[in-house]
Amino acid sequence: MKRNGLRIGGLVALAAMLTAPALAETGTSLPQDISETAGRLMAAAASDTVGLKFVEDLTTEIGPRLAGSPAEARARVWAVNELKQLGFQNVRVEDFSIPYWSRTHETAEVVGSNAQPLVITALGGSKATPEGGLEADIVRFDSLSDLQAAPVGSLTGKIAYIDELMYKTQDGTGYGLAVRKRSGCANAAAEKGAVACLIRSVGTQSHRIPHTGIMSRDGALGALPAAALSAPDADQLTRLLERGDVRVKLDIGVQSAEAAPSGNVIGEIEGSDLKDEIVLIGCHLDSWDLGTGAIDDGAGCGIVVGAAKLIDALPGKPRRTIRVVLFGSEEVGLLGGQAYARQHGDELDKHVLAAESDFGAGRIWQFQTRFGEGAKPYGDTIKAMLTKIGVAEGNNEAGGGPDVGPLRRGGVPVVTPSQDGRDYFDYHHTPDDTFDKIDPEEFRQNIAVYAAFSYIAAETGWDFRKAADAESAQGAD
Q: Which domains does the chain have, with CATH numbers?
């Protein structure tokens, strides 16, 4: 018999294994009581209901949450109420403004003797086509580099089309390569005289579902109307081009404004003797508008809320404050993370650790740190604890997550619990990003990891900025 992905008969053995003291090769060990509590937190995560319910309710009751939209505003109100009901302290919204963009309509069709519809979605920041749309011949390129190398004026009056594939990787590096065509197509096509640009969707699934995303993080409208074709439609367009010239009618409508309201939602598990020191775990509350934002990033919000609530259920308070931040407007330029760093710039020295869950709900397979040289043994000890639930020991080059990037650059130590992202881009930024794509067992393993490292960071009082001591530094010379 199974319950919550674990065999009931194995729970006792699991708890015993998890509560054994974590000892890194360096000899830095966790105090017995902290080690045992961290183990119990990881075991308890297997039965979590708070985190998963948070995602289900958010995606059901609010749905998609486009940055700056009324839906994102409703999500902030909803999140404040939920965090208060869950018993978080100091729940609040920290407001900021953003440039606003949304789609109103989007269609594309091949015209002429092979007339047929194409499935597209406008890219974030796309300009509108002229009223009634535009028609132009298609010119295909294998990559953004090929488009950029085209002679100036060679695309006058035409539509540039970049037909570059994206490949699946566990760590998401395939996205970093493929997304360049999304950000670069409009500008490069405009330089060559084109009237619009199309790209093969930045995604890894083969269904007739397009993938959206922002073109530029500077908040400005792009140079041209721009859209992504679903993968099968990209294949179809390429096959048609192999048979001769192809003409497409493109019709995109958008709304935009220089300023719209957004904000970061914050709730805390207040600490005790070190309550002014902050362990920050975050996610982003906004989403794109095609699906319901379940894996990107409702899942991340459920993971950090669920982990913090497990710690809150322990007897007594953690020593340090655990701050949960639901960042706003991540999708349109990491604007929530930037706003948080500005608004808390004078207290970054009090942020002892930060991490963001923003890569879906796949199983965490590796744990990376970015600590001071003298704090590496602390990282090794946390990693040793997490190996008990199958998490590999990563390096000391963690990024921390998109919205905590400004904190990392400001000197805040970060960790990256690396999720398995091999199927993440099958759903990311598409209509298929819905609650049913979350695997409850893998989701709860994420909560176990976040609960354990957050608790250890809060309870030990370790200094993760610690530089190498003089003796070690001399030995390295």
A: 2-99+259-460 (3.40.630.10), 115-245 (3.50.30.30)
